[in-house]
UniProtKB/TrEMBL annotation:
Chemical reaction(s) catalysed: dTMP + ATP = dTDP + ADP
CDD domains: TMPK
Domain Thymidylate kinase-like: 7-163
Gene that this polypeptide is encoded by: tmk
Entry keywords, A to Z: ATP-binding, Kinase, Nucleotide biosynthesis, Nucleotide-binding, Transferase
Lineage: Bacteria, Bacillati, Actinomycetota, Actinomycetes, Mycobacteriales
EC number(s) per entry: 2.7.4.9
UniProt name for this protein: Thymidylate kinase
Organism: Rhodococcus ruber
PANTHER family the record matches: THYMIDYLATE KINASE, UMP-CMP KINASE 2, MITOCHONDRIAL
Length: 221
């Protein structure tokens, strides 16, 4: 049975780059690794509807915090079987965003903290009711919100197809999301967490994740 690792962070944190580096390191060590990103754009109708809503379509959908969270959650519900299959035939399944994204953004939109009702609603909905697999380790890529915002803006000017969505334009939401993420990590929400910075050595992080039993991880960023 493979291990389920997750990378979390605000928009523009650099999750994609960290994920690529971790996968290369694990593959160099001969491990079978597969990477899945949420929302699963072009594969999940729920993910596509959520993205369209965040770009102004579908009426007042994006205005509803809970409707948005349900769309993201339904994408994962549909993926649960696939993730279990991938875990059964790989050493590592690496997820770029997962349930904690829904917990952090939903709580942040509602101006709640990590121990509020929204986080508990997401936990009960996704892990209990939908039965999505629980991660072995969640990583928080913790970068200054201003730097992440700069990256999201730079992506937009470099690529017309990547116009910033409603969440990416909302600096205050990104700051609150970052705070909720920090608290989820501090409380070991649903798994042990590793908080890493942009300066983390991906080879060392990959080795420590792969070699140590979960729950006993020690990584110095
Ligand atoms: P993306 O930026 O990774 O493409 O995701 C789109 C936005 O949706 C991003 O701001 C994070 C947010 N989001 C949630 O609110 N809940 C979720 O479950 C996921 C996967 C993303
Ligand atoms: Mg984004």
């Amino acid at each position: 049975m493979g291990r389920l690792f997750v990378i979390e962070g605000v928009d523009g944190a650099g999750k994609n780059t960290l994920a690529r580096r971790l996968v290369s390191a694990w593959e160099r060590d001969g491990l079978d690794v597969v990477r899945v990103g949420f929302p699963r754009y072009d594969r999940s109708i729920h993910a596509d509807l959520a993205a369209e809503a965040l770009h102004g379509e579908h009426g007042d959908t994006s205005g509803s915090v809970h409707a948005m969270a349900l769309l993201f959650a339904l994408d994962r519900k549909d993926a649960a079987g696939e993730i279990r299959d991938l875990l059964s035939c790989n050493d590592i399944v690496l997820l770029d965003r997962y349930v904690a994204s829904n917990a952090a953004y939903t709580a942040a939109r509602l101006e709640q903290s990590a121990d509020g009702e929204a986080v508990e609603w997401i936990r009960a909905l996704e892990f209990e009711r939908f039965g999505v697999p629980v991660p072995d380790v969640q990583m928080l890529l913790d970068v200054p919100v201003a730097l992440a915002a700069e990256r999201a803006a730079a992506r937009e000017s470099a690529d017309a197809a990547r116009t910033r969505d409603a969440y990416e334009r909302d600096g205050s939401l990104q700051s609150r999301t970052s705070a909720v993420y920090g608290a989820l990590a501090a409380s070991s929400w649903m798994s042990p967490w590793q908080v890493v910075t942009a300066e983390v050595d991906p080879d060392r992080l990959a080795a420590e994740l792969a070699n140590q039993p979960s729950g006993e991880l020690k990584v110095t960023p």
